[in-house]
Amino acid sequence: MKSIVIHAAKDLRIEERETPEPREGQVQIAIAAGGICGSDLHYYNHGGFGPIRLKEPMILGHEVAGHITKLGDGVTGLHEGQLVAVSPSRPCGSCKYCREARYNQCLNMRFYGSAMPFPHIQGAFRQVLVAEAAQCAPADGLTPGEAAMAEPLAVCLHAVKGAGDLMGKRVLVTGCGPIGLLTILAARRSGAAEIVATDLSDFTLGMAAKNGADVTINVGEAPEQLATYEADKGHFDVLFECTGVAQALAGGIQALRPGGVIMQLGLGGDMTLPVQAMTAKELQLRGSFRFHEEFFTGVEMMQKGLINTKPLITQTVPLAEAETGFHLSSDRGKSMKVQIAF
Amino acid sequence: MKSIVIHAAKDLRIEERETPEPREGQVQIAIAAGGICGSDLHYYNHGGFGPIRLKEPMILGHEVAGHITKLGDGVTGLHEGQLVAVSPSRPCGSCKYCREARYNQCLNMRFYGSAMPFPHIQGAFRQVLVAEAAQCAPADGLTPGEAAMAEPLAVCLHAVKGAGDLMGKRVLVTGCGPIGLLTILAARRSGAAEIVATDLSDFTLGMAAKNGADVTINVGEAPEQLATYEADKGHFDVLFECTGVAQALAGGIQALRPGGVIMQLGLGGDMTLPVQAMTAKELQLRGSFRFHEEFFTGVEMMQKGLINTKPLITQTVPLAEAETGFHLSSDRGKSMKVQIAF
Amino acid sequence: MKSIVIHAAKDLRIEERETPEPREGQVQIAIAAGGICGSDLHYYNHGGFGPIRLKEPMILGHEVAGHITKLGDGVTGLHEGQLVAVSPSRPCGSCKYCREARYNQCLNMRFYGSAMPFPHIQGAFRQVLVAEAAQCAPADGLTPGEAAMAEPLAVCLHAVKGAGDLMGKRVLVTGCGPIGLLTILAARRSGAAEIVATDLSDFTLGMAAKNGADVTINVGEAPEQLATYEADKGHFDVLFECTGVAQALAGGIQALRPGGVIMQLGLGGDMTLPVQAMTAKELQLRGSFRFHEEFFTGVEMMQKGLINTKPLITQTVPLAEAETGFHLSSDRGKSMKVQIAF
Amino acid sequence: MKSIVIHAAKDLRIEERETPEPREGQVQIAIAAGGICGSDLHYYNHGGFGPIRLKEPMILGHEVAGHITKLGDGVTGLHEGQLVAVSPSRPCGSCKYCREARYNQCLNMRFYGSAMPFPHIQGAFRQVLVAEAAQCAPADGLTPGEAAMAEPLAVCLHAVKGAGDLMGKRVLVTGCGPIGLLTILAARRSGAAEIVATDLSDFTLGMAAKNGADVTINVGEAPEQLATYEADKGHFDVLFECTGVAQALAGGIQALRPGGVIMQLGLGGDMTLPVQAMTAKELQLRGSFRFHEEFFTGVEMMQKGLINTKPLITQTVPLAEAETGFHLSSDRGKSMKVQIAF
Fold it and tell me: Which of A52, A247, A278, A286 best probes binding to D when mutated, by most D CB atoms within 10 angstroms?
């Protein structure tokens, strides 16, 4: 059973691991597709991010889907051969936050492919994965690639939910990588009346325009276009900040109307913010982190054709060329979501 | 200038009235399309409803759109020849509820075609209407028929907004007349993951299925189908009650999960409700009445292709045959929305 | 070990039961005080209420406090001799509602002294009770009588929480029994600016006036006083309905302002409601049922002197005279909360 | 008629101005008490703050109360001799934010004693003030000093309201000047179960302890005490940040539990914030700016004895010694709220 293991920055290896067997309540899955995420890239390019660093080899990957090959005892509602999207989120179920149903804040979370804590939580870029049945969303009718989009889609659905009712709202999305694009899809599906998207890359802005943005602005080339939204204390009800860059957030703040909500998805360390301006306009800056039940919602939305993630999968590479996938994925001018076929 | 005047139950006349001229801030509009609403039908069939009764002749109609023929002084942002949807809602702007921005609860509301108060508020089924510029939503790109759907659509957007965030929610709609259908469109657009619709007519249920309902149930013929949603204290997060019939509401209550929200749109006088069951499940019954800014939101959503009301317009009759339109509109087995072409 | 057992309407017996021993995670408690609740009275006076009927003898009681006499293995944070208030709410922790942290809607709830389901859930009016440590709120500094008020207080805190932010709000409370009075205390503590209370008994209204109501109205004698709040579509932001009587609810509806919230605490079977008026004013009728974490909040609030329940305990009778307590408790003209000293 | 005029930093003069007469809808008021606010101090000590600078002489003051000396035509509900608290907030009533009832964000706000815009908005530190009747809250039963506390109290009530329901919540207040203290009073009245307050001055912390804080921490001397609240991702539900100092905010962030709310009242320019940590814990940073209807709520709460601001008025100086008041007010080790008697 082959797996994709990161040993250190730029040291990515395809290694054999023992094929795991399912226990009670678990299923064995032949992984079919795995999407490369920004955090995977951070491990590959830099060996980690912020205080989170690799200390031992770790299987990467947390955006995966595959077909069930074996059912453990007591598993119902799933069957062999069935395509499932696998949620990488494994809260403990018994800490104080789990008991409050705030599962994404679990004190003992074991999220796939995560160098925090130590020993690291091994990931899901592997030919065979054993998962709890409860992690599996039946994905009948989807392609494995679409099913593997459930994870980043869930991140965006969680953020959209955190922003409250979007019906008729005016929305700004800063950053048009996969998270920005999926946020555009989710916001459009949630009733946003107007969506303006910004980025520094014409490639990603072009994709934003094709996937639901009403207006796109290259803030590197034409920052004055965003400034047109600043009149009378601003225009947008909600900003989905998907860059983690202070400059993007600050620009958005000027364009938000009083009482506006900033959903912060991008993770970017410390930022210097115009807190006085934010206070005077009574803005709300809300963090959004991972997801929980939105994973299953996302799969259902895709199955019903309510959200279409297919156009975002720009490249699929075979397992043997996984490293090529990591290179492609690092190039924001050529790729949106790169997936690996196992 | 011809207008459609109700004198008493079943006494509908097409009468000449003087052509009005716009004053400062107003526009003159050649009405092109007018939709017949349930309240118009109540006046036509019964001379009123509940305590609200006709006491003098009244021009009917409040779902209208037309082309601007003249601009009063000081009007900007509109131009002659432009198609506009005209909001029938005219709050005073200065009572205590208007000052709280709760305009639909205005103490001095002058809503078109309303027998409350006295003298009645004359309606908009007329060839020429003068309205405040602020009532007019530019409807470029829409047909007059679609533009005239802005009013009932606004009613439903207001209800959807009142239900809070619908993303991923399970929704039940009882009653598949125009309000039920537009609610389905609005709920789908707002991210509902599952929509089940009930009615007694296969014609309207068929239209519900074509316009976004995942499942339709004829509760006259197969009430047991709704009962399948009652297990484990119920299934739905939100019920949009569009019938005003106690039985429909009571059935929905059994199928709602704990904490579920009932948006009551149907107006049906007193109702006997299972309040103890509602209390034990901690349900929320919320009234939804008319709309305000949702009128403009609805036009924008139609213009952007986010909500498509066209399939709901099943018949259009010429002004001379207006009464035929009222008959058609009363037959729930043959029509959804009937409009009059002026 | 003596316990208070209801066999049928008016057939209340004090019976010996075996003294229970605590297992792992449990504590043994010498019950000191137990308050008689409306549901206890229903079993005593009528053998049940609505569809819930006694089918076998049942120990009554769910408002209790006492001193710990023994700790089971593994219990930390509690000690022998300590006064604790004991929550009667025992959700399963694993059904779908528990996993959503909606514990009061648990599908397998075992609430003390409850004839639903069968076999009945035996109650806590007993000299020795064994409870899970997690049910126990340390009540140091309180009297046993106060600590036994934690349960009905929790019911009211849950309702106040369900009403949302009360700061500066105008509140109507219909029904001034113990639940009405505790709601007044909780609403006052939560920042209500104005509290008007209604009842049919001058005794309970007098207690309401002494415990935080700004105005009291005997709606039997002077119903016109409530009508003064009906001008301009009504006055109150929130109605806490504590009677379960349709007439009280209907009167409150007239006095609620548009958008007002009705928290329904009283359980009164089916009710005929003016749904049309409720819809037109966009009122919200919300059920409130039991509580969860509010039990612990209530004890803390009493310990800090933020809520004072002592004046509501009007009589305390010894165990041998428990039946006298039930009689007293049934007389709304003489008693508020009657407790039994074990 | 004497008034207190700031000409430049440290250049405060008591000057004669013409006595104004009330027009229709206005009242003339003999100001009795005026509280010195942080922004008054900024003008006095620094000639402004951030980008807001004095460009011409300006009468200071916006926390005032006095007795009505004359009624303009058409004024009802007020009478000569009556004590009123005067709201300094004068929104235009017709801009887009006013029409949304978001009055504190008015595009044309004329808030007393404000150097933005130019010409400056003259303030209310004057022996005779003419105000709109609608600005006046009858303050019968209060002292003029208490009535003059209505303005800073309104700021804090607005922030408490912005934090949502506080019943049973755990609250941290950073900064124990007048705004911090009034926030403690308001949070306690709104049902907060636990209040911890921090500051660098033992004098203000002592006042916090006397006015409702359960625990006080001098973060200059014992920062480790706040760190005890950081276990398991933090302890507090809400942080009221009243310093405008990044260090205070950052410390609070560590002590907030996941999903916690930061109400930012302190105005402190740009701040460098740990946005990644805020995002991972899904915190919400919400600005709170001025107030609107809370001004009237605050007066009512004081009149009913629900909030007691009297102990916060530490010094009152006569008009002739106004500058002494500004010195006293600048010394956080000796004064809380300093007022001027006119």
Answer: A286
Residues counted in chain D:
342
| pLDDT score of B332 | 86
User: Does A165 reach chain C within 8 Å, measured CB to CB?
Assistant: no
Closest alpha carbon to B156 in B216, B68, B240: B240
Alpha-carbon span D156 to D307, nearest angstrom: 12
Say how far apart CA A307 and CA D51 lie, in whole Å.
46
Cα dihedral across residues C205, C206, C212, C214: positive or negative: positive
Angle, in degrees to the nearest 10, between helices A150-162 and A178-189: 60
Residues in chain B within 8 Å Cβ distance of A297? 167-168, 193
Whole-structure pTM value? 0.97
| ipTM exceeds 0.90, yes or no | yes
Containing A153, the helix (H) or strand (E) segment is helix A150-162
Q: Which residue matches tokens 């205590």?
A: B96
List where CATH 3.90.180.10 sits in chain A. Answer: 2-149+309-341
What is the number of alpha carbons within 13 Å of residue B81 lying toward its C-beta? Answer: 0
Tens of pLDDT, residue by residue over D92-101, are 999 999 999 9
Instruction: Give DSSP secondary structure letters for C66-97.
Output: EEEEEE-TT--S--TT-EEEE------S-SHH
Q: Report the relative pairing of strands B170-174 and B236-241 from DSSP bridges.
A: parallel
- Given this model, what pLDDT does residue B312 score? 98
Question: CA D322, CA B293: separation in Å to the nearest integer?
Answer: 50
> Which residues make beta-bridge pairs with C131?
C27
Whole-angstrom distance, CA of residue D296 vs CA of residue D291: 10
Q: What is the mean pLDDT of each run of 10 residues along chain B (342 residues)?
A: 97 97 98 96 93 95 98 97 98 97 98 94 98 98 98 98 97 98 98 98 98 97 95 98 92 96 89 92 97 97 98 98 96 94 97
Helices and strands: H and E segment counts in chain A:
11, 19
Torsion D83-D88-D89-D91 (CA) sign: positive
Instruction: Specify the CATH number of the domain D156-287.
Output: 3.40.50.720
Q: Is B101 on the interface with C (CB under 8 A)?
A: no
Backbone angles phi, psi at D225, to 5 degrees: -65, -35
Interchain contact C224–B (C-beta under 8 A): no
Domain limits, CATH 3.40.50.720, in chain D: 156-287
Strand positions, DSSP E, A167-318: 170-174, 194-199, 215-218, 236-241, 256-264, 271-273, 284-287, 313-318
Helix (H) or strand (E) holding D39: helix D38-46
Q: Is the pLDDT higher at C276 or at B7?
A: B7
Give the residue from B161, B165, B169, B263 with the most A CB atoms within 10 Å of its CB, the best one to mutate. Answer: B165
Q: Is D259 on the interface with C (CB under 8 A)?
A: no
> What's the whole-number mean pLDDT along residues A236-260?
95
Q: Report pLDDT for D50.
A: 81
Distances (CA, A) of B300 to B138, B295, C175, C183: 9, 9, 48, 45
DSSP structure class, residue B123: -
Cβ neighbours around A270 below 10 Å, total: 14
**Coil, helix or strand for D191?**
coil
> Cα B334 to the chain's mean position, in Å?
19
Give the fold, CATH level 3, of A2-149+309-341: Quinone Oxidoreductase; Chain A, domain 1 (3.90.180)
Tens-digit pLDDT profile for residues D23-76: 999 999 999 999 999 999 999 999 998 888 999 999 999 999 999 999 999 999
Strand partners, A126: A3
